[in-house]
């Protein structure tokens, strides 16, 4: 097991190296010269050349790559071309809101979706099942900004329970944080509930047809025990996969929700950087997102062993 | 003593079903599933319900447990457990009764235990649900019952998960779980069908032993007349939801009254080998020193190896049948898959009409593929459910360039040969029974005009009467077309009826090889002897309603 974890962590290195090569190449291949962006429209060729030299852009590609990777390894993600602040501190300032809303969303989604899926599978083809399925289709099909604005309209403007927009970090207390973060998290939850409930229902349906469920009933187990002790643990692995992937997606940034609720998160940082061609920031974001994906996948894979003893690494 | 001759007239009745009727209320026009059956089981007695698939034997057991699938409803009658009618009971009352007073064990020990819970916990769960015993006491009783079912190394197995145990061990766990609360009635639904014969024998002995120890009444459901002969006190023969005949075991096997019982008994393949056919000289398949080793790879560390086939050699001449007999894990299917080149052998030669195909590439193999065809065990899964029978049948010949019209004509002809109407070609696999599907699978293989047909447990999933017909069909095709057959089976009775030669495999090695008559009548290897001795009901000549020794007296060799 420990050997496996070490091997998986070592395997992160080639993956990240490939991502680094890809990111590096991507920016060298896209049209547009970073030096020209920095210099602005009025720059002379001599000024441009000076900036290129300062940024190392006139060196051969492989030298540029090695220099850049060397900086990365020292934890230096470069400096923003626009604001001239280090990228690490920009991301540091934005990751808090994104991460806290992602965690809140996943917690709310799992708490709602898993019981919904279990009940839908248990009461297969009943009113409860159709209600859950209808909700799933709806939650998945309605665009997230529509849901966001509808929630604002109802909960903020009509009822006045929550603010229209803004963000308060957790460090200022859990109450103020929830006051601001609940509506955006609820908006995102509708999508993830739809996804996780569907997955739970499908897998529970399959497991409930298994022989050991009949055995459990033949032992005289009440339905609650059959569903949650015998069935859910067997259905857990694919559900976990969806939850994990969902979490990675949430951390990668949810631009629309962040825009609707005016949250200073990673998503908006990335979009702003792309619009301004702020290359160091874009590079850092791609690297960070891929790293998070690899990490989340590792955690999911390891968590399988907790639910299914047949999976051994 | 051949049969059990115990008398239970004085014993109290454990369970009686009276005029029990079950139907499908939401599907009009179909016959009742159970048409008013009567069964009585007394304490300490073993009642066998025998019948073919669809006869209603499992429905009877599930009705007693109150676990009928939603579509099925009890329409009338009574189910009396020690005089108490179970039908009016509420769900909660039925739950209390399950495992405590009526327990059940199922056919597939591989899937009947929850794979993600430790087996010790699964046994203790029964006591958690039904008693107020302390945790320590539950544990003590669980370990005690595990010892009673003769599990080795109980402390280790207590902590094991099902996948870490063998099939026989899992079935022992199921039995332990069923008997830990000492129920009045144990329902065993085909509990040994999925097990090897030697394991089957041990499990049958175990059920017998525990029954005597605890005085449990046993309702034993099986399709296997051999098992019936071994364990039954009383036999009920079921057909289409009715009990067509019942009585003490010896009476049923010696003097069956109902035509259906006679027919069922007559289809039980005899352990006495059939007369060998004429030997031919024309070798179509020669396998020499075939080895298959699994595992051993791994990038970071060497994985454990499994030697699934060790130096297997045999040859097969045109028009004859070679049986490969062995229990699960003996390597018989590995050999079959190597011959088919579905997997690549590690070393050795496989000569098909003189050409070594063991090392040919995919492309090089193509001209030879059509000469080697296969019929698999499960006809439910070996035909593409979205294709018509015609599509399945002509696919192979079309791949080899036969014009569609010609292939269709041949498919239509073969439907006649395998005894199916010609319009079957336009239908889909789900519209056929298991036996019919297996005929289609055979027709599909024969479409390619193969030299060698590999039948991998091809009749194991079929009822005995259907099994006899399919064996007859294979025999006829062999006579007409001169196909050589490699017949893989775990069932010695089937092997005796179809094979000219037999090889017996154990742990990847051939332990005995010879003419079927010789190997089955005078086994030389202890493993072969153990297999034959474990075959249930081997002392009874079912087809002639008499014991084997009486048969031998009638036909002195």
UniProtKB/TrEMBL annotation, chain A:
<feature type="transmembrane region" description="Helical">
    <location>
        <begin position="281"/>
        <end position="307"/>
    </location>
</feature>
<comment type="similarity">
    <text>Belongs to the binding-protein-dependent transport system permease family.</text>
</comment>
<feature type="transmembrane region" description="Helical">
    <location>
        <begin position="177"/>
        <end position="197"/>
    </location>
</feature>
<dbReference type="Pfam" id="PF19300">
    <property type="entry name" value="BPD_transp_1_N"/>
</dbReference>
<feature type="transmembrane region" description="Helical">
    <location>
        <begin position="99"/>
        <end position="122"/>
    </location>
</feature>
<keyword id="KW-1133">Transmembrane helix</keyword>
<feature type="domain" description="ABC transmembrane type-1">
    <location>
        <begin position="95"/>
        <end position="300"/>
    </location>
</feature>
<dbReference type="InterPro" id="IPR000515">
    <property type="entry name" value="MetI-like"/>
</dbReference>
<keyword id="KW-1003">Cell membrane</keyword>
<dbReference type="InterPro" id="IPR035906">
    <property type="entry name" value="MetI-like_sf"/>
</dbReference>
<keyword id="KW-0813">Transport</keyword>
<keyword id="KW-0472">Membrane</keyword>
<dbReference type="GO" id="GO:0055085">
    <property type="term" value="P:transmembrane transport"/>
</dbReference>
<protein>
    <submittedName>
        <fullName>ABC transporter permease</fullName>
    </submittedName>
</protein>
<feature type="transmembrane region" description="Helical">
    <location>
        <begin position="237"/>
        <end position="261"/>
    </location>
</feature>
<dbReference type="InterPro" id="IPR045621">
    <property type="entry name" value="BPD_transp_1_N"/>
</dbReference>
<feature type="transmembrane region" description="Helical">
    <location>
        <begin position="134"/>
        <end position="157"/>
    </location>
</feature>
<keyword id="KW-0812">Transmembrane</keyword>
<feature type="transmembrane region" description="Helical">
    <location>
        <begin position="9"/>
        <end position="27"/>
    </location>
</feature>
<dbReference type="Pfam" id="PF00528">
    <property type="entry name" value="BPD_transp_1"/>
</dbReference>
<dbReference type="GO" id="GO:0005886">
    <property type="term" value="C:plasma membrane"/>
</dbReference>
Automatic annotation (TrEMBL), chain B:
<protein>
    <submittedName>
        <fullName>ABC transporter ATP-binding protein</fullName>
    </submittedName>
</protein>
<dbReference type="InterPro" id="IPR050388">
    <property type="entry name" value="ABC_Ni/Peptide_Import"/>
</dbReference>
<keyword id="KW-0813">Transport</keyword>
<keyword id="KW-0472">Membrane</keyword>
<dbReference type="GO" id="GO:0005524">
    <property type="term" value="F:ATP binding"/>
</dbReference>
<dbReference type="GO" id="GO:0005886">
    <property type="term" value="C:plasma membrane"/>
</dbReference>
<dbReference type="InterPro" id="IPR003439">
    <property type="entry name" value="ABC_transporter-like_ATP-bd"/>
</dbReference>
<dbReference type="InterPro" id="IPR027417">
    <property type="entry name" value="P-loop_NTPase"/>
</dbReference>
<dbReference type="Pfam" id="PF08352">
    <property type="entry name" value="oligo_HPY"/>
</dbReference>
<feature type="domain" description="ABC transporter">
    <location>
        <begin position="19"/>
        <end position="265"/>
    </location>
</feature>
<dbReference type="GO" id="GO:0055085">
    <property type="term" value="P:transmembrane transport"/>
</dbReference>
<comment type="similarity">
    <text>Belongs to the ABC transporter superfamily.</text>
</comment>
<keyword id="KW-1003">Cell membrane</keyword>
<dbReference type="InterPro" id="IPR013563">
    <property type="entry name" value="Oligopep_ABC_C"/>
</dbReference>
<feature type="domain" description="ABC transporter">
    <location>
        <begin position="285"/>
        <end position="532"/>
    </location>
</feature>
<keyword id="KW-0547">Nucleotide-binding</keyword>
<dbReference type="GO" id="GO:0016887">
    <property type="term" value="F:ATP hydrolysis activity"/>
</dbReference>
<dbReference type="Pfam" id="PF00005">
    <property type="entry name" value="ABC_tran"/>
</dbReference>
<dbReference type="GO" id="GO:0015833">
    <property type="term" value="P:peptide transport"/>
</dbReference>
<dbReference type="InterPro" id="IPR017871">
    <property type="entry name" value="ABC_transporter-like_CS"/>
</dbReference>
<dbReference type="InterPro" id="IPR003593">
    <property type="entry name" value="AAA+_ATPase"/>
</dbReference>
<keyword id="KW-0067">ATP-binding</keyword>
């Amino acid at each position: 097991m420990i050997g496996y974890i070490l091997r998986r962590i070592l395997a992160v290195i080639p993956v990240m190296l490939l991502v680094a090569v890809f990111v590096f190449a991507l920016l060298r291949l896209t049209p547009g010269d970073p030096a020209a962006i920095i210099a602005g429209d009025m720059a002379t060729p001599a000024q441009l050349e000076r900036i290129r030299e300062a940024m190392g852009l006139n060196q051969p590609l492989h030298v540029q790559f090695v220099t850049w990777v060397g900086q990365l390894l020292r934890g230096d993600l470069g400096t923003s071309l626009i604001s001239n602040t280090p990228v690490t501190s920009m991301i540091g300032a934005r990751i808090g809101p994104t991460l806290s809303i992602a965690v809140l969303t996943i917690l709310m989604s799992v708490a709602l979706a898993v019981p919904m899926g279990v009940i839908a599978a248990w009461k297969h083809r009943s009113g409860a099942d159709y209600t859950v399925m209808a909700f799933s289709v709806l939650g998945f099909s309605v665009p997230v900004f529509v849901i966001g604005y509808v929630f604002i309209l109802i909960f903020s403007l009509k009822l006045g329970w929550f603010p229209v927009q803004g963000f308060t970090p957790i460090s200022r207390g859990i109450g103020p944080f929830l006051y601001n973060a609940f509506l955006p998290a609820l908006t995102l939850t509708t999508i993830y509930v739809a996804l996780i409930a569907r997955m739970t229902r499908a897998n529970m349906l399959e497991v409930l047809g298994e022989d050991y469920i009949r055995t459990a009933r033949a032992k005289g187990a009440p339905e609650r025990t059959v569903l949650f002790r015998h069935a859910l643990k067997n259905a857990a692995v694919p559900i976990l996969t969806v939850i994990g992937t969902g979490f990675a997606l949430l951390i990668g940034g949810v631009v629309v929700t962040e825009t609707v609720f005016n949250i200073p998160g990673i998503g908006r940082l990335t979009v702003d950087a792309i619009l301004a061609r702020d290359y160091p920031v874009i590079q850092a974001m791609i690297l960070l997102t891929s790293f998070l994906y690899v990490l989340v996948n590792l955690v999911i894979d390891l968590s399988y062993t907790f639910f299914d003893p047949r999976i051994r690494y | 003593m051949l049969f059990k001759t115990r008398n239970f007239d004085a014993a109290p009745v454990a369970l009686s079903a009276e005029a029990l009727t079950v139907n499908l209320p939401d599907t009009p026009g179909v016959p009742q599933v159970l048409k008013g059956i009567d069964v009585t089981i007394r304490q300490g007695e073993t009642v066998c319900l025998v019948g073919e698939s669809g006869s209603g034997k499992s429905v009877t057991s599930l009705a007693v447990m109150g676990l009928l699938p939603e579509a099925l409803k009890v329409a009338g009658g009574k189910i009396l457990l020690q005089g108490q009618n179970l039908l009016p009971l509420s769900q909660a009352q039925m739950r209390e009764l399950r495992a405590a007073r009526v327990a059940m064990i199922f056919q597939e020990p591989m899937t009947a235990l929850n794979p993600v819970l430790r087996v010790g916990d699964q046994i203790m769960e029964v006591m958690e649900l039904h008693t107020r015993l302390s945790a320590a006491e539950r544990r003590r009783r669980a370990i005690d019952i595990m010892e009673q079912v003769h599990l080795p190394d109980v402390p280790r197995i207590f902590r094991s998960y099902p996948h870490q145990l063998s099939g026989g061990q899992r079935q022992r766990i199921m039995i332990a779980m069923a008997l830990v609360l000492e129920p009045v009635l144990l329902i065993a639904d085909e509990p040994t069908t999925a097990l090897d014969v030697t394991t089957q024998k041990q499990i049958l002995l175990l059920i017998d032993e525990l029954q005597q120890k605890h005085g449990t009444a046993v309702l034993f459901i099986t399709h296997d007349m051999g098992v019936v002969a071994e364990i039954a006190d009383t036999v009920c023969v079921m057909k289409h939801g009715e009990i067509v005949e019942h009585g003490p075991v010896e009476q049923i096997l010696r003097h069956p009254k109902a035509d259906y019982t006679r027919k069922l008994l007559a289809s039980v393949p005899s352990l006495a080998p059939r007369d060998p056919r004429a030997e031919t000289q024309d070798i179509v398949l020669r396998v020499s020193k075939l080895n298959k080793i699994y595992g051993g790879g791994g990038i970071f560390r060497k994985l454990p190896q499994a030697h699934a086939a060790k130096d297997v050699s045999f040859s097969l001449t045109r028009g004859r049948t070679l049986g490969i007999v062995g229990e699960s894990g003996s390597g018989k299917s590995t050999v079959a898959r190597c011959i088919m080149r579905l997997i690549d052998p590690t070393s050795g030669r496989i000569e098909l009409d003189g050409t070594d195909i063991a090392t040919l590439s995919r492309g090089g193999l193509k001209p030879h593929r059509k000469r080697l065809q296969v019929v698999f065990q499960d006809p439910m899964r070996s035909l593409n459910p979205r294709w018509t029978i015609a599509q399945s049948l002509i696919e192979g010949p079309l791949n080899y360039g036969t014009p569609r019209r010609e292939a269709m004509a041949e498919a239509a002809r073969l439907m006649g040969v395998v005894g199916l109407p010609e319009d079957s070609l336009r239908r889909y696999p789900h519209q056929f029974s298991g036996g019919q599907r297996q005929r289609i699978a055979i027709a599909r293989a024969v479409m390619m005009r193969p030299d060698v047909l590999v039948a991998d447990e091809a009749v194991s999933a079929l009822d005995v009467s259907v099994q006899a017909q399919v064996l007859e069909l294979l025999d006829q095709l062999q006579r007409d077309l001169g196909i050589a057959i490699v017949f893989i089976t775990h069932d010695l009775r089937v092997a005796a009826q179809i094979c000219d030669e037999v090889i017996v495999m154990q742990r990847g090695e051939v332990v005995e090889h010879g003419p079927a008559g010789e190997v089955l009548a005078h086994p030389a290897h202890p493993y072969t002897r153990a297999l034959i001795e474990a075959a249930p009901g081997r002392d009874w000549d079912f087809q002639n309603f008499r014991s084997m020794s009486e048969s031998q007296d009638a036909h002195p060799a």
